[in-house]
Amino acid sequence: MPEIRQTVSTGTKWEPIVGYSRAVRVGSIIHVSGTTATDHQGNVTAVGDPYGQTIQAIRNIEAALHRLGASLSDVVRTRMYVVNIDDWEKVGKAHGEFFSKIRPATSMIEVSRLITPEILIEVEAEAVVTGMDSGVPPTVAVGS
Fold first, then answer.
1. What is the pTM of this model?
2. Which residues contact residue 129 at a Cβ distance below 8 angstroms, ignoring those fewer than 6 apart?
3. Are 98 and 72 in contact (CB under 8 A)?
4. Spatial distance between the Cα atoms of 100 and 44, rounded to a whole number of angstroms
5. For the chain, how long is the longest CA-to-CA vector?
6. What is the pLDDT of residues 33-85, one digit of tens each?
7. Residues 6+ apart with CB under 8 A from 144
């Protein structure tokens, strides 16, 4: 029996243009795309605040995971792309507030820029879900 592919969409205009989903689950593996600090309308939050943006990005990741029957405790890897590596302590503090007990493998990488100058960080996550199938339908819409 083939594994079901489940996707989570934010409903933003960029997903069909670029051709991506917020998150994809196949079997027990979930990949969450680079996620930024945006609200349900797609507006950047916590402008100028790398700590606040990290908090919002991880909350957005958490929402996508929930739609696929998972939680942050299932996360095994994160990648954080920052425009200023000098913000590492603020970004690390926010990441630690969610993951200090989970302790996924992680990377923090400085990049020259992200999609818009207001965005200071983008976070990716990978999760492995153990247990029964989530019962989530193949496509689920969720806020950004």
1. 0.88
2. 25, 28, 29, 30, 68, 69, 70, 74
3. yes
4. 26
5. 49
6. 999 999 988 899 999 999 999 999 999 999 999 999 999 999 999 999 999 99
7. 10, 11, 12, 22, 38, 39, 40, 42, 60
